[in-house]
């Protein structure tokens, strides 16, 4: 809701007497109330909320004849049914001219052939309201039309739309679907224009969906509607007997003169008096046809007269009332006139290869050999080796060879394969040999263990495994003793500490007020966090500069402070305030920017650390990475100027707009993040703190990677602190190898991207909920992974699991992830299947054992959901074990329809199932 106030304010000099000073502002306040009363509520300063202290920005008048009118507009979020406004004057001489209270709406609009009604904006300026459109006349839904109404009364991010039905064409200017005129047609829904009727067809009426064929012309059921109508072919020509004896007749003919405008002419032979012993070459079964112009008929009786009819047919012959044909009468010869052909006139096919055997087995390779048939009926041209995973014969592969042996590579380790061989002769392919099954070996270190490995290799491998086991036991004992001396944080509940800290290469719990470990000292240099590779442009670590100011000068543009106007403080950071403001550069339009300021009195180290982020950010230029406008270093306060992102951090934005986006829009956000990370990875930059809180969202819902600070002094509750010699690790977002060995690579960033995907699809839900860091680490090491968020597409959840592969070399790279997301966006139907959680999630070791709760009443009370107790009792659900079998549909049936409450209850049900399973076994792994 907006409040517009017009007022004038008198200057102090006009006050009677000699006023040394006077108030030049007044306060605008409001009080929300759910019930209307005749009298406003009594004035109580603590009951009213301050909207703003308003000053006369346009000026105060000093002459009674020249009054200056000021106009100020403020807004408030609406949370109740009614609101009272109050103006408080504490000494200013003001004259209120008018007060206007109003709200914004997105106007009625027709777009994508869908009509969207006038839609009020949300309760807050940052709120987004979703409007569903209705199709215009003679249109149907292609994808559900959704338009987002932003807080400033503008439509944004149209998705889906309608398409014109058959017989109507799209008028984009008027956004209407118009009838096809006579002589035109449109046979399918879409944006295609009506087309003229093809040859030999007509459409006498408006709105035709297809054109009718002229008399004598037809259209096959499989023919497209936009090709000309065709007709049956003419009859074959010059039917001739080429050979005849006592049991065989050979016929040939010429194709018809006209084929009816088609290219699918075939022939059919009808033989009077032929019995079941007669065969045809090429074969003819029942009424099937063939496409050659000659035929051989065998198995006839001697001295018998046969009548043969040959018909030419095509795809529309079955629609014609009459068929044209040619016929001929032939009498077979007497039995002694010619050499009688033996009854078995077909040449015998090739026989089967012999002695197929395995000659070598390796981890990913198997060799085999065989012998040719004993009596091949013709020369062998080649062999085909067919192989497949046992049980998956339909998904086989083949290779061709002229030798009697073959080696098949690229196989999976420890997998049973089936092998078959056949030969090809001049008479055709032979039969496959019987399947031969064999398991591949297993790769261990630089050697593999296969069937033909010798004993020495086995001893070496066994000794290697034993050594690793012994080292693991020693490390475990050492860690057990070291853990007894951990600091106070480990004596608390593990969930009290949100990060783990490294000191001297060891993992420690974070103290409540930890000492700051410097990133670098004056005159020293640190090693970059990346390994340079060949690339047209590479990230340069600012810490490699002996003079940090040189990095600032090289990578960041200096901006004169006079070009910057600070409008409002929108947040606070570790170094100072974060503000919204305007940047007005000469010759360029004014732009809204975000301004980070360095608090006065900061140390030189704090100044360098503050500007280090700018020298990092200044090296990047990508639509999905936050853009640095410049820095102010030659005046105070020192400032970093970046582009302004209206919707703030992604995690907060998603929580505020829970459930308001379509899946495709969420996938689009993921694509933005993955694209930005692909760019950073190609620049050889490792982010190390990728999380939804470090992704910003602008008004067009474009997501951009932010937060490039590498060494910062932060409060103990902050999760995103690193140093090059140790520091805090955001456990919930960090890959296991980075936690255990401080091994940060692009692959560890890929793990973090998987967690961000989970945050986005879960609308900002906290990863691993209220588990402690130690529980998270132990669960991941056991192989547990986060479950699929509610309504998450299976394809997206599978991509998350790929990002969470324990072996970092098995994770996809960012380029592959972007390609996968692009494919999903291009084929929205691939997102329709919702992921079913195939596994249970690990439990925090200190989590409440829900299986010990005695009743549904206690369980709901633990969730603060006792309001639904009657719903469960009415359905006869009184035992906690029965609750563990419920799903989302069951909750809706029980009358629990609020999305947030469903998510909270389903999360607890998921924990219940896991705890019941853990009581019976160790757990379920991904």
UniProtKB/TrEMBL annotation:
Domain SAM stretches: 851-915
Covalent S-S links between cysteines: 12-22
GO MF entry, a single one: ATP binding
GO biological processes: axon guidance
Cell location: Cell membrane
EC number of this enzyme: 2.7.10.1
A Pfam family: PK_Tyr_Ser-Thr
InterPro entries, A to Z: Eph_TM, Ephrin_rcpt_lig-bd_dom, Ephrin_rcpt_TKs, FN3_dom, FN3_sf, Galactose-bd-like_sf, Growth_fac_rcpt_cys_sf, Ig-like_fold
GO CC term, one of those recorded: dendrite
UniProt-recorded name of the protein: receptor protein-tyrosine kinase
């Amino acid at each position: 809701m907006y409040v517009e106030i017009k007022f004038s304010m008198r200057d102090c000099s006009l006050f009677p007497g000699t006023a040394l000073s006077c108030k030049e502002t007044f306060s605008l306040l409001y009080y929300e109330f759910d019930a209307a009363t005749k009298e406003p509520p009594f004035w109580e300063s603590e009951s009213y909320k301050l909207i703003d202290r308003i000053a006369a920005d346009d000026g105060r008048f000093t002459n009674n004849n020249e009054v200056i009118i000021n106009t100020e507009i403020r807004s408030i979020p609406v949370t109740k049914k009614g609101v009272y406004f109050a103006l408080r004057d504490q000494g200013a001489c003001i004259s209120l001219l008018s007060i206007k209270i109003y709200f914004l709406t997105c106007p009625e609009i027709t777009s994508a052939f869908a009509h969207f009604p006038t839609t009020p904006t949300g309760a807050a300026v940052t709120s987004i309201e979703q409007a569903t459109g209705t199709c215009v006349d003679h249109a149907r839904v292609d994808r559900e039309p959704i338009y987002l109404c932003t807080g400033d009364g503008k439509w944004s991010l149209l998705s889906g739309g309608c398409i014109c039905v058959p017989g109507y064409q799209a008028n984009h200017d008027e956004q209407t679907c118009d009838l096809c005129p006579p002589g035109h047609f449109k046979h399918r829904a879409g944006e295609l224009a009506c087309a003229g009727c093809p040859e030999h067809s007509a459409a006498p009426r408006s709105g035709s969906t297809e054109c009718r064929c002229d008399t004598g012309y037809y259209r096959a059921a499989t023919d497209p509607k936009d090709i000309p109508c065709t007709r049956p072919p003419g009859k074959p020509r010059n039917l001739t007997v080429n050979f005849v004896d006592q049991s065989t007749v050979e016929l040939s003919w010429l194709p018809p003169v006209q084929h009816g405008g088609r290219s699918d002419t075939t022939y059919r032979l009808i033989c009077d008096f032929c019995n079941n012993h007669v065969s045809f070459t090429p074969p003819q079964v029942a009424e099937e046809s063939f496409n050659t112009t000659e035929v051989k008929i065998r198995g006839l009786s001697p001295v018998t007269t046969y009548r043969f009819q040959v018909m030419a047919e095509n795809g529309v012959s079955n629609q014609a009332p009459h068929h044209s044909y040619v016929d001929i009468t032939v009498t077979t010869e007497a039995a002694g006139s010619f050499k009688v052909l033996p009854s078995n006139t077909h040449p015998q096919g090739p026989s089967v290869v012999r002695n197929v055997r395995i000659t070598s087995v390796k981890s990913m390779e198997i060799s085999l050999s065989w012998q040719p048939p004993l009596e091949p009926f013709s020369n062998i041209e080649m062999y085909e080796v067919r192989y497949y995973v046992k049980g998956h014969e339909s998904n086989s592969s083949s290779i061709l060879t002229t030798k009697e042996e073959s080696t098949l590579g690229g196989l999976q380790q420890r997998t049973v394969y089936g092998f078959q061989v056949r030969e090809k002769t001049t008479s055709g392919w032979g039969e496959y040999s019987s399947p031969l099954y064999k398991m591949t070996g297993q790769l261990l270190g630089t050697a593999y263990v296969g069937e033909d490995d010798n004993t020495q290799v086995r001893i070496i491998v066994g000794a290697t495994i034993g050594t690793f086991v012994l080292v693991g036991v020693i490390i475990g004992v050492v860690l057990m003793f070291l853990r007894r001396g951990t600091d106070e944080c480990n004596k608390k509940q593990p969930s009290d500490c949100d990060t783990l800290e490294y000191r001297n290469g060891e993992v420690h719990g974070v103290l409540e007020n930890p000492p700051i470990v410097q990133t670098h000292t004056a005159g020293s240099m640190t090693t970059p966090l990346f390994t340079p590779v060949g690339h047209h442009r590479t990230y340069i670590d600012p810490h490699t500069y002996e003079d940090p100011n040189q990095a600032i000068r090289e990578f960041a543009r200096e901006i004169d402070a006079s070009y910057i106007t600070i409008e409002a403080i929108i947040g606070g950071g570790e170094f100072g305030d974060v503000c919204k403001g305007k940047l007005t550069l000469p010759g360029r339009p004014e732009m809204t920017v975000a301004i980070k300021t360095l608090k006065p009195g900061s140390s030189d180290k704090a100044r360098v650390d503050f500007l280090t982020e700018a020298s990092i950010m200044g090296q990047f230029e990508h639509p999905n990475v936050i853009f640095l406008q410049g820095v102010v270093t030659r005046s105070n306060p020192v400032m970093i100027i970046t582009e302004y992102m209206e919707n703030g951090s992604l995690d907060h934005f998603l929580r505020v707009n829970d459930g308001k986006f379509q899946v495709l829009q969420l996938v689009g956000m993921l694509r933005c993040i993955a694209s930005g990370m692909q760019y950073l990875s190609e620049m050889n930059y490792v982010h190390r703190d990728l999380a939804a809180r470090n992704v910003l969202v602008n008004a067009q819902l474009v997501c951009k990677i932010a937060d490039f600070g590498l060494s910062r002094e932060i409060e103990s509750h902050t999760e995103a602190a690193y140093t090059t010699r140790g520091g805090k690790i955001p456990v919930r977002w960090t890959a296991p190898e980075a936690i255990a060995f401080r091994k940060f690579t692009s692959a560890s960033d890929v793990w973090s991207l998987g967690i961000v995907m989970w945050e986005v699809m879960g609308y900002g839900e906290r990863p691993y909920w209220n588990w402690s860091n130690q529980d998270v680490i132990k669960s991941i090491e056991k192989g547990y992974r986060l479950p699929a968020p509610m309504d998450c597409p299976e394809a997206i959840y599978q991509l998350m699991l790929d990002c969470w592969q324990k072996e970092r070399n098995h994770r996809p790279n960012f380029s592959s992830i972007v390609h996968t997301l692009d494919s999903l966006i291009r084929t929205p139907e691939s997102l329709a299947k919702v992921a079913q959680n195939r596994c249970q999630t690990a439990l925090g070791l200190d989590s409440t054992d829900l299986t010990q709760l005695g009743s549904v009443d206690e369980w709901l009370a633990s969730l603060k959901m006792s309001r639904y107790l009657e719903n469960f009792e009415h359905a006869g659900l009184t035992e906690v074990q029965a609750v563990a079998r419920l799903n989302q549909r069951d909750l809706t049936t029980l009358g629990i329809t609020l999305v947030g409450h469903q998510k909270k209850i389903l999360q607890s049900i998921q924990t219940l199932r896991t705890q019941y399973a853990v009581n019976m076994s160790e757990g379920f792994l991904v």
